[in-house]
Amino acid sequence: MSSMIQAVRMALHVAEERHGVTDIFGEDVGPPLGGAFTATQGLKRAWNSPLDERGIVGTSIGLGLAGCRNVAEIQFCDYAFNTIDLLKLGGMMSWASHGDWNCPITIMTPVGSGIRGSIYHSHSFDATATHIHGWKIAMPSNPKDAYALLLSCIVDPNPCMFLIPKALMRSRAAPGEEIPGIDVDDRGLSKLIDAPLGDRSKWTPQWPDTPDLFIPVGEAATVRKGRDLTVVSYGRTLPLCVKAADSLAAEGIEAEVIDLRWLAPYDWERIKESVKRTGRALFVNEDTEITNFGEHLARRTTEEFFYELLAPPKVLAGAAIPGIGLADNLEMASVPQLPSITQAMRDLAASKP
Amino acid sequence: MSSMIQAVRMALHVAEERHGVTDIFGEDVGPPLGGAFTATQGLKRAWNSPLDERGIVGTSIGLGLAGCRNVAEIQFCDYAFNTIDLLKLGGMMSWASHGDWNCPITIMTPVGSGIRGSIYHSHSFDATATHIHGWKIAMPSNPKDAYALLLSCIVDPNPCMFLIPKALMRSRAAPGEEIPGIDVDDRGLSKLIDAPLGDRSKWTPQWPDTPDLFIPVGEAATVRKGRDLTVVSYGRTLPLCVKAADSLAAEGIEAEVIDLRWLAPYDWERIKESVKRTGRALFVNEDTEITNFGEHLARRTTEEFFYELLAPPKVLAGAAIPGIGLADNLEMASVPQLPSITQAMRDLAASKP
Amino acid sequence: MSIDPNAPLTNEQLIKLHSLMVQGRVLEERLIQMYKQGDGYFWIGGPGEEAFNVPLGMLIHKGQGPEFDYLHFHYRQSATLLAMGADPVDALRQMKNTATDPYSGGRNFGGHPSIRKWNIVPVASTIETQYTMAPGTAMAQKRHGGRGITIVTGGDAGTAEGDFATCLVWSSRPMEPLPVLMIVTNNKWGISTAAAPQHGEKNVADRGRAFGIECKTIDGNDPEVAWREIASAMEYVRTTRRPFLLESIVSRLYGHSSASGANPVTDEADCLKGFEARLEARKILTREQMDSLRQKFTDELQLAHRRVREEPQPDGKTIYDHVFQTRDLVRGG
Amino acid sequence: MSIDPNAPLTNEQLIKLHSLMVQGRVLEERLIQMYKQGDGYFWIGGPGEEAFNVPLGMLIHKGQGPEFDYLHFHYRQSATLLAMGADPVDALRQMKNTATDPYSGGRNFGGHPSIRKWNIVPVASTIETQYTMAPGTAMAQKRHGGRGITIVTGGDAGTAEGDFATCLVWSSRPMEPLPVLMIVTNNKWGISTAAAPQHGEKNVADRGRAFGIECKTIDGNDPEVAWREIASAMEYVRTTRRPFLLESIVSRLYGHSSASGANPVTDEADCLKGFEARLEARKILTREQMDSLRQKFTDELQLAHRRVREEPQPDGKTIYDHVFQTRDLVRGG
Ligand SMILES: Cc1ncc(C[n+]2csc(CCOP(=O)(O)OP(=O)(O)O)c2C)c(N)n1
Ligand SMILES: Cc1ncc(C[n+]2csc(CCOP(=O)(O)OP(=O)(O)O)c2C)c(N)n1
Ligand SMILES: [Mg+2]
Ligand SMILES: [Mg+2]
Predict the structure, then answer these.
(1) How far from the centroid of its chain's Cα atoms is residue A133's Cα?
(2) DSSP assignment of D235-285, as one string?
(3) Residue at B201 is within a domain
(4) What is the mean pLDDT of residues A36-61?
(5) Residue D88 Cα, ligand 1 centroid: separation in angstroms?
(6) Where do the domains of chain C lie, and which CATH numbers do they carry?
(7) Where would a tag sit more exposed on chain B, N or C end, judged by fewer CB atoms within 10 A?
(8) pLDDT higher than 60, residue A211
(9) What is residue C253's three-state secondary structure?
(10) Which of D181, D123, D71, D86 has its CA nearest to residue B66?
(11) Are both B167 and B246 inside the same structural domain?
(12) What is the CATH number of the domain that holds B310?
């Protein structure tokens, strides 16, 4: 079972081999390290940039305008907040030129909490990203989706953001959810594609022969069927929602869980069909809760089918504070965790019209 | 009747004379121009900075940390998107140091549409700003509030943003809503405090003796009472909401209009009291509609008093596109205007439970 | 095809240069008139920079894709576009934000072109962001081989933005120096802010030195000097595949933009006047020839103005068009 | 009180310097051990920079408000804090993110102090942002008069951020040059990225020259050189009220941070070893004295580690504390 970070790496390999990716770059992306999270080890097109996020985003756009499909990494999304103007410009190359240009780039960045990253390595980026129009935005919750979403971003002619939940970097594919073409066990895969500790200058990866997988832009997945309420989430909180749903089944509560996967454009039809059926909606993410993307989904839900709802749509998100504190208690109290998610689902299921 | 821009200028004068403001700075803020919108003409402490928004925000924070209360201007909020990380840092000086420091600064910037500013002089900043925690955020809809809100920002020990709706810069105080101490007419006031065209090097303003006015942080104003629906807005769209409400009275619809004034912290008690009474809520702003501050207010409204609502809360906001096009038709179609606001209010009042 | 920078310009070339400078000036004057007559909301442009901008346009290797020059312009480049062969009427269309505006469909301010077939990337109002993107196109060109280079232009005040330094850093990396011609047109102003009190550097171009970047400050008011220096800087970049920082001292003849009135100033050198005096003295053109040339362009553009005024405005329903592309236009070309 | 940079250090001063260097090294080793024993989630610090960081701390004019030095540090400054008189146990507390951590109440990573009474502004993880804020405190000092200066520190790779250029631009404006001592500790690495292929500049300090900023690159592994050069740069800034850019070549003895393992490296010069050999040769200290000093600090910090381990963790309910201040702490002081 590949981990999410291995899946990302394999997708990048496939992209540079078969989809014409010319550059994979960013801080510490090239040798010797191959990425702060090992996402870019052993890739032919990976190189180290200067420590300058504005230069990274600008260069990515420039390469894209010159027809070079590329993947640029911001080491942590926390360090993308000095580039919002450039992201806005990248997102408007087509629109502002009235369709004269496109910009086929992917910005990849780790997001969110879960590794005790303290104030400046725990930020979420989904609220910020979804407010920058002209980008397609993907965020996986499992390795196979990570692989397919990243490839889908890369082949798209538009600028795409690929947000990788830090907390799930080392999570492994569930049985039956493996990327095809990997016919070795975890250790075997690690031997093939994880760089050894120490000197790597003579190492070359042995890539398994994995196929092209894509997820149509804007297509969510219903990962658990249920009749009592609809939970819409993505990234780190998605597996927690599934876990909570599974545990609530014992209480007779059957929650449907939708993994959004694409935040822009997003799968409104699926949300609509589900919420109309269950009458109850919970939107879970870990970005801070004032001016939050879940609030957009909740207001649209309310606006469009208020009269069919059995309970008020609810948003469970991060606390509206400037950052996430380092100490365990602080991080736990700052962003949704399994108990708070379970409780929110239980409460919503119980609320009577 | 002073215009909003004159009110801002008078507040800055009072602030440098009586409230210890040491610096008012930014691009073209000092002589000879005194600000792209004339906000800083004739002020003693106004000076021109390099063309570097990151330096402006950083220097403002630095001055603040050294105890110098200051007002820094970003010429258009469109040019603050390369400084979001610094704004985040400014907003967390107290929180991250666990209360060891504070940062008494005000960032002032013109926002929004209404002057055919095209793609990069029409952005709103309220969605972005309200997602940066640790800042107090004010946005006036009339000259007197502009005066009082700016002074309130300046004397606050925390970082504050003062967002000035470009479209209202030249709007004048309504009768009875004049800043006290101005005992001349419009022309008279202009003679006293507007810099002459041409050479200004020998000009000095004659400031009227205006008093300290403050608006308690977080206090909204109910600018029109009504029983049928509650409209919450701020900035450019606020006077349009009032106008729409006045015209709808002829149709027998009585809308209550709340001018939020402070976006952070905001006056939840007032919204709550009103919406519980009217059962209908419309949130109007002109920032783009995905991950929008009005969506936060709408979801909180739904979450907290769903069962008391007579209709789904509605958000009327800007179109989710990368920018606002220059041509008249494009700008009109991109952000709420009087007809769309009136229609949204009419529809909401008509929607039957 | 390489150009010898030191070969004196032929009379034919000088006449062409002059004609384009005149046309450029007349175009800006027309755009200002459009603004003043209410046929446009905002004017910004380059009157006073023709002596630099025209040679630049003439020397650009124009076309689509990495073998041609990539152009990251700012908002004072109309004369460069003319020299490249752009239709001046398109500048009027963008000024009037018509649906026929080929650069932005009436979305962007005048002076903000985008022409993919000539590698002119969309001009943005955000000062200096173009300098962050230039290394990207230059990298593509370095790999592609050939003589294509990236040219980025901006003003003096804007160099205070970190993005200018970004371009210096990224184009001079020992692991991959880039074929970027960085141009700073120094008019000694940023809107109302005088340069002198703000700039610790004697010349902006000196900032390249620490990075081992070739740099030079030139008199941009003399088109022959400009031609020679641009050609020579381009030749350096085309052949060495390394960066060059060229600072050109220019005038700002109608103030910053319509925001500052767009009225003629009298205290700055007019490159066109100087050049015309020289052409007359050298007997290359007579005053009459030059006057009638100017009249011809003026008449043409006045007519064009009338026509453009009648062209349709974009429909409000189109605001969502082109948010996303369905085809990859920039690859394959 | 001014210091003569060229006066040789007295034996007493050398012994104090050495003692602080040893204490600084031992503190970092303890912090690394804490990390390795699970008493902290992340380590980053300055082992290898003591020869520069200790003299810096000793020479800082410490106190609150504009007559004292304002300090915009990065995350490798623990030895500077020790030299200023900070309690090393507080570094342990931040490492263990206890409620007693006086710098951030358990919110921030170790190595991220904030001490208002000494003008140490909150250290942030964001590389180079401190360089945008330094001009602000320096401006306050320029106006206030006196000898207080602003000191900002950062690494070599970080100078690629535009913020470094922002500090150069803002501190050298002819209208108001600022008393900023800009320090770059150049360890030739940014995490895993070697400096050489990324830097077109021969010395980072050369970037000051174009701005007329005094600049110098020094051997930061020699504490006597560092003392002299820091003292001399400070004296320049204190008296001329103008900026100075000081680049110090240093070692990185345990890699970048715990993210890269925090294991000792063997191929970089150890400033402490070099200094100790010299002290021994000059008969200022014996090997035994130095060994027992090290042992003493090691024992003290081991005990402190045990104590800190038992100190309370912050309560989750406190996350909203101090989002806003009710009082103005920085004015009046
Ligand atoms: C990032 C950004 N900040 C501010 C502005 C507003 N603005 C437009 S032009 C200008 C002055 C530019 O001066 P300079 O770089 O010297 O170019 P010039 O206009 O003189 O050619 C300013 C401040 C902007 N467009 N973008
Ligand atoms: C803005 C920003 N980008 C990226 C990072 C991640 N990061 C942390 S330290 C570092 C390298 C810093 O290198 P240098 O400036 O040379 O300082 P050193 O650590 O070598 O002392 C990077 C890339 C960050 N903290 N902040
Ligand atoms: Mg200029
Ligand atoms: Mg370094």
Answers:
(1) 17
(2) HHHHHH---EEEEEE---BTBSSGGGT-PPPSSS--HHHHHHHHHHHTTSS
(3) no
(4) 98
(5) 48
(6) 11-330 (3.40.50.970)
(7) C
(8) yes
(9) strand
(10) D71
(11) no
(12) 3.40.50.920
Q: What is the mean pLDDT of each run of 10 residues along chain B (353 residues)?
A: 95 98 98 96 98 98 98 98 98 98 98 96 98 98 98 98 98 93 94 93 95 98 98 98 98 98 98 98 98 98 95 98 98 98 98 82
- Same domain for B345 and B251: yes
User: Looking at the domain assignment, is residue A88 inside a domain?
Assistant: yes
A131 lies in the same domain as A259: no
Tell me which DSSP letter residue D225 carries. H
Asked if residues B348 and B251 have their Cβ atoms less than 8 Å apart, the reply is no
Reading the block at residue B167, the tokens are: 């479209």
Q: Identify the residue among A109, A302, A326 best suited for mutation to test binding to B, counting B beta carbons within 10 A and taking the highest.
A: A302
| Residues 6 or more apart in contact with residue B188 via CB below 8 angstroms | none
Query: Can you give the CATH number for the domain in which B146 is found?
Result: 3.40.50.970
Residues A181, A50 share a domain: yes
- Whether residue B208 lies inside any domain: the answer is no
Atom of ligand 1 nearest to the CA of C128: 1
- Structural domain for A99, as ranges: 4-193
User: Which among C164, C166, C211 is the nearest to D201, CB-wise?
Assistant: C211
Which residues of chain D lie closer than 8 angstroms to B20, CB-CB? 331
Q: Are residues A120 and A252 in the same domain?
A: no
Of B138, B173, B193, at which residue does a domain stop?
A: B193
DSSP for D86-148, please give it.
Answer: --HHHHHHHHTT-TT-TTTTT-S-TT---BGGGTBPPP-SSTTTHHHHHHHHHHHHHHH-SS-
Contact: A329, D316; criterion CB under 8 Å: yes
3-state SS, residue B160: strand
Residue of B nearest to A53 (CA): B82
Query: Rounded to whole angstroms, how far apart are CA atoms D178 and B261?
Result: 38
In a domain, B165, yes or no: yes
Position B190, amino acid: S
Which ligand 2 atom is nearest residue D195's CA?
Answer: 16
Q: Is D66's pLDDT higher than 70?
A: yes
CA of residue D265 to ligand 4 center, whole Å: 15
Q: Which two tokens stand for residue D37?
A: 């024993």
Alpha-carbon distance A177 to nearest alpha carbon in chain D (angstroms): 30
User: Could you give phi then psi for residue B279, rounded to 5 degrees?
Assistant: 75, 0
Same domain flag for B235 and B331: yes
Q: Is A75 exposed, middle or buried (0-12, 13-18, 19+ CB in 10 A)?
A: buried
Task: Assign C136 to helix, strand or coil.
Answer: helix
> Given the DSSP bridges, would you call strands B262-264 and B221-224 parallel, antiparallel or unpaired?
unpaired
Q: Does the beta-carbon distance from A99 to C133 stay under 8 Å?
A: no
Q: What is the CA radius of gyration of chain D?
A: 19
Handedness of CA A71, A77, A83, A85 (dihedral sign): positive
Of C172, C173, C207, the CB nearest to D210: C207
**Ligand 2 centroid vs D190 CA: distance in angstroms?**
6
**Same-domain status, B36 and B173:** yes
Q: What band does C1 get if pLDDT is binned at 50, 70 and 90?
A: low
Is residue A112 domain-shared with residue A15, that is, in the same domain?
Answer: yes
Q: How far apart are CA C252 and CA A192, in angstroms?
A: 63
pLDDT, tens digit, 9 for 90 and up, residues D294-326: 999 999 999 999 999 999 999 999 999 999 999
Query: What distance separates the 2 farthest-apart alpha carbons in chain A?
Result: 66
- Interatomic CA distance for residues C141 and A135, integer angstroms: 26
Determine the residue of C127, C185, C265 to mutate for testing ligand 1's pocket, defined as the one with the most ligand atoms within 8 A of the Cβ atom: C127
Strand residue runs (E) in chain B? 23-26, 46-48, 70-73, 105-111, 136-138, 160-165, 221-224, 229-233, 255-259, 262-264, 281-288, 314-318
Rounded Cα distance between D76 and D54, Å, is 12
Hey, whose CA ends up nearest to atom 17 of ligand 2?
A: D155
